[in-house]
């Protein structure tokens, strides 16, 4: 956590990357921290602002091709996110935000440079992946089944420097076999929903990475009902 002993949550470029309720990821993280008595400071950093390097958790949402390419260019030029990662910050990225953390991605038919924070590359698939997404998470993360909604035309290919977040059981994810990726304290996924509302276990994992603290259980009756309903919709077919 930051020197002020407040958990700093930084939502990057909401003016460019925020689709399918991705702002909900910020709200969920802040709420789950607050319920455990952790002081929280939330900041929304727009694309024309400098990225602070002293945050604890950085969140990046999804978006269309043009805003995605512009976001990547500005994040590379700014350098604040890379400096934050170098000092041990946690990053959670969704869809377009996930792709731009890799080495390269395609936007409007052109290959674009990513930030190189995750060892992966994304290109275009033959079909668009739209619908419910589910998968069994990497056992090393200690997470329950992943659930989400995906809507993307990309396919993501993981290099040896990352591990998949999950093995796909419904939907496409990266390539029909794996979904998302993680390395160190950086985690990316194609799951909207928003992802942390459907997957509070991931929210608690991010909080644990950022604080080094064990997250005591809280009342998750409503998230559990949501998860059970959405997972039953795809896994019982």
Any overview of this molecule?
- This protein has 237 residues and is of the alpha/beta class.
- It contains 7 helices and 12 strands.
- The chain has a 6-stranded mixed β-sheet, sandwiched between helices. Strands 8-7-9-10 form a 4-stranded antiparallel β-sheet. It has a two-stranded antiparallel ribbon with strand order 5-6.
- The chain is globular and about 45 Å long.
- The mean pLDDT is 95.
Radius of gyration from the alpha-carbon trace, in angstroms: 16 Å
Instruction: Report the structural category.
Output: alpha/beta
The pLDDT mean sits at 95
**What is the 3D form?**
globular
Estimated helix fraction: 25-40%
How far apart, in Å, are the first and last alpha carbons?
A: 43 Å
The helix-strand sequence is: EHEEHHEHEEEEEEEEHHH
Any low-confidence stretches, pLDDT <50, length ≥5?
Answer: none
Q: Could you give a short account of the major beta sheet?
A: 6 strands, mixed
The count of DSSP E runs of length 2 or more, i.e. the number of strands, is: 12
Approximate strand percentage: 25-35%
* Order of the strands making up the biggest sheet: 2-1-3-4-12-11
Number of helices: 7
């Amino acid at each position: 956590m930051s020197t002020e002993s407040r958990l700093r949550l930084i939502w990057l470029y909401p003016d460019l990357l925020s689709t399918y309720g991705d702002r909900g990821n910020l709200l969920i993280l802040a709420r789950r921290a607050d319920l455990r008595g952790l002081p929280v400071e939330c900041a929304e950093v727009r694309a024309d602002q400098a990225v602070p390097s002293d945050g604890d958790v950085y969140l990046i949402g999804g978006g269309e091709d043009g805003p995605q390419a512009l976001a990547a260019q500005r994040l590379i030029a700014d350098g604040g996110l890379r400096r934050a990662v170098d000092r041990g910050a946690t990053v959670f990225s969704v869809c377009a935000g996930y792709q731009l953390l890799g080495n390269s991605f395609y936007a409007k038919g052109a290959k674009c440079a990513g930030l190189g924070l995750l060892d992966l590359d994304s290109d275009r698939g033959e079909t668009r992946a739209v619908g419910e997404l589910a998968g069994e998470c990497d056992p090393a993360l200690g997470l329950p089944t992943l659930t989400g909604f995906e809507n993307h035309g990309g396919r993501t290919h993981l290099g040896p420097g990352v591990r998949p977040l999950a093995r796909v059981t419904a939907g496409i994810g990266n390539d029909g076999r794996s979904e998302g990726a993680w390395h160190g304290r950086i985690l990316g996924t194609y799951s909207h929903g928003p992802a942390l509302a459907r997957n509070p276990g991931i929210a608690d994992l991010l909080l644990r990475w950022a604080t080094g603290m064990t997250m005591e259980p809280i009342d998750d009756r409503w998230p559990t009902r949501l998860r059970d309903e959405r997972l039953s919709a795809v896994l019982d077919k």
